Amino acid sequence: MIQVYNTATKQKETLQTQAPNKIGIYVCGMTVYNYIHLGNARVLAMFDTITRYLRHRGFEVNYIRNITDVDDKIITKAHENKEPVTAVTERFINAMHEDEDALNILRPSHEPRATEFMAKMIKMIETLIEKDHAYVADNGDVYYRVSSFESYGALSHQDVNDLRAGSRVDVVDAKRDPLDFVLWKMAKPDEPAWPSPWGEGRPGWHIECSAMSTHHLGDTFDIHGGGFDLTFPHHENERAQSEAATGKPFVKTWMHVGYVQIDKQKMSKSLGNFFTVRELLTRYHPEVVRYLIVSSHYRSPLNFSLEQLDTTRSALERLYLALRDLDLSQEEAGTEFETRFNKAMDDDFNTANGLAVLFDMVREVNRLRETDLAKAGRVAAVLKRLANLFGILNEDPESYLTAGQVETESGVDVSEIESLIAARNQARAEKDWAKSDQIRDELAARGILLEDKAGETRWRRVALEENTDDTAS
Ligand SMILES: [Zn+2]
User: Fold this and answer.
1) Exposed (0-12), middle (13-18) or buried (19+): which is 317, by Cβ within 10 Å?
2) How far does the centroid of ligand 1 lie from the alpha carbon of residue 67, in Å?
3) 277 CA distance to ligand 1 centroid (A)?
4) DSSP label at 347?
5) How far is ligand 1, taken at its centre, from the CA of residue 400, in Å?
6) Most CB contacts within 10 A, which of 162, 174, 185, 271?
7) Distance 413 CA to ligand 1 centre (A)
8) 26 C-alpha vs ligand 1 centroid, how far in Å?
9) What fold characterizes domain 3-258?
10) How many angstroms does the Cα of residue 395 sit away from the middle of ligand 1?
């Protein structure tokens, strides 16, 4: 039984899908006017892991994640750059896909774009007007009438009267209630516009997700997800629109991914108050970023600092070291580790506890290396498969450990390292310990750590501050 925390009920509930072994998931995707940052990557990577895990547990997953390709921020960017809106959106959609590929985030089953759904949005707004849940204001914009939807505020656990008291007086006084929100905006000069029964214009933000999600998944579906900040007003408004239009419950389970918290003091010195994925990937292997994301539970805040990425890198290296030199072609059947991993993940996708199980496997593999190398390989193969659900351990261990992560590159080439190792082995054979130690120290100073095992010398690249102790143990 998989338990999932539902924002709407504030508790963990047993996941019961509408159709057996099938699950429909809708996640609010990116507004494409900039490169994705670590907070965006956390949402994308977490739902990738959740989707992979549900497939691993036998579900057929229909995963829909939209692209918001018409929006005030996109239009502002296009005006600033003096380029067409579609040039901005195409560029940043491509950039997002590149970043996702780098991070090994699988594409959703469908990736609908808002601009492809004008007809469906207009139809939905017409229905809302017919049912008196929406009205055309004096300025021509169409608004959702919040007072017409009795349970408004239930998802975000807010009282409508408090919301109304706290709402700022809007510059647009065409609204009849400060809580009403726009469904369709009349066209302004130099903005993209589409024909509608209310004149040329464009949709408000919230309506697109109601249109796209119900198109792909039906009026009622299993899971709706997004970043924590979308709970209100976006998801509250989506729910109000969808349920008012269809007369059916919209979503069974609402899932929200927590914020990335940043050590601002350290950030402000270097790159501003957030890191784009691109910036991080110039310094860290993508799997280090994936590892960081699964290292805390998705609902907790993720505390981020560059130091933490360094720690993360060492932890990932321990996982790769466990796989090194083993035959991973066959799996150990029925390990209790997989049962324990599933148990951790069944508890609201607790990736942090899942990782702890992976490290128990590392210890077991390292222990088996001394006694049963073949079994060590079979357990390591299970470790690799489970870690793949987190988007990590996809690389060949040997290449990962010797290629080095970007920041630790020390400019030594492989043949040079190997000839130095040969020279050191020669010195050792001649019992010239001074020379042997000198070569080891020289390599260590350049970020190359040697390990002598069973008459053979292996090497790997390490971060320079780490090279005096061996993290393999
Ligand atoms: Zn949305």
Assistant:
1) buried
2) 9
3) 22
4) B
5) 37
6) 185
7) 49
8) 9
9) Rossmann fold (3.40.50)
10) 34
Q: How far is CA 104 from the centre of its chain?
A: 10
pLDDT digits (tens), the chain, 473 positions: 999 999 999 999 999 999 999 999 999 999 999 999 898 999 999 999 999 999 999 999 999 999 999 999 999 999 999 999 999 999 999 999 999 999 999 999 999 999 999 999 999 999 999 999 999 999 999 999 999 999 999 999 999 999 988 776 655 578 999 999 999 999 999 899 999 999 999 999 999 999 999 999 999 999 999 999 999 999 999 999 999 999 999 999 999 999 888 765 333 334 456 688 998 898 899 999 999 999 999 999 888 888 888 899 999 999 999 999 999 999 999 999 999 999 999 999 999 999 999 999 999 999 999 999 999 999 999 999 999 999 999 999 999 998 755 544 445 567 788 888 889 988 988 988 888 888 888 888 777 888 887 778 888 877 654 433 333 33
The answer to whether the beta carbons of residues 55 and 254 sit under 8 Å apart is no
Q: How far is the CA of 240 from the centre of ligand 1 (A)?
A: 13
Distance 27 CA to ligand 1 centre (A): 7
Q: What's the fold here for domain 261-403?
A: Four Helix Bundle (Hemerythrin (Met), subunit A) (1.20.120)
Residue carrying structure tokens 């128990």: 360
Q: Are 224 and 26 in contact (CB under 8 A)?
A: yes
DSSP string of 424-454? HHHHHHTT-HHHHHHHHHHHHHTTEEEEEET
> If you measure from the C-alpha of residue 193 to the centroid of ligand 1, how many angstroms do you get, rounded to a whole number?
20
